[in-house]
Amino acid sequence: MRLSAVDLNCDMGEAFGRWTIADADDARIMALVSSANIAAGFHAGDPMLMNETVRLAAQHGVGVGAHPGYRDLQGFGRRKIAGSNEEILNDVIYQVGAVREFARCHGVNLQHVKPHGALYMEMAVNEDLSRGFIDFMRRTSPDAYVFCLESSLTCRIAREMGQPVVREFYADREYDRSGSIVFARRVGRLDPERTAEKVVRACHEGKVRTVDGDDIDVPFESICFHSDTPGCVEIGSAIRDALTANGIRIAPVSEIVASPAKSSRSAI
Which stretches are annotated as coiled coil (predicted)? Predict the structure, then answer.
């Protein structure tokens, strides 16, 4: 595996009212990425912020994605919330609909959906929940991508049901031997250059070093970093510079993944 082009995505719009994340700067981050995962109101985000974040994405030609999470503002969506699969899926539908309508207002399509935090991790191992989520996507957004890990049930079920999939590589998270990320509610400050080196190695060799010291294969089409990681702008800039320096182009998902999905740059 040696990639010549990748998508670069970031979780964005993750504030609420007057409360913001210290290092997050959506305007600067938007200039670095090709896909934006926009908080949909339950773990972060509010209508004013969703509108502004979608507007920024449309202005920069960045793919708009809904980033639904558990109803957990206090825990930033990184705590598992008990509920039936029906309750959780209806929360997801509600959030995706919100971002989709703001996208329509700004003349762009919903490019993708990426569950957030603890919900992303739960879908990765919960077959019934993943199947319900993909069934919703097939019925309402058959051309939109689902962002997930290669090792997840979400990925397997999406492929089985015919939903376009984008597999992610996490620049600012650690991996275990199963190919899953090591879940963390808080992440300390990382060295941007070392993070960028990790990304370039993954692009060139398709491998990452786990917390146990092993190398594992990590197939992916998109690289993710988080706006709540301290120093996120510096991390994103270092990744983008390193990719460019190594001849790896940052491109929209629609140019990388073969599927019928439409680019978010196309008007509805």
Answer: none
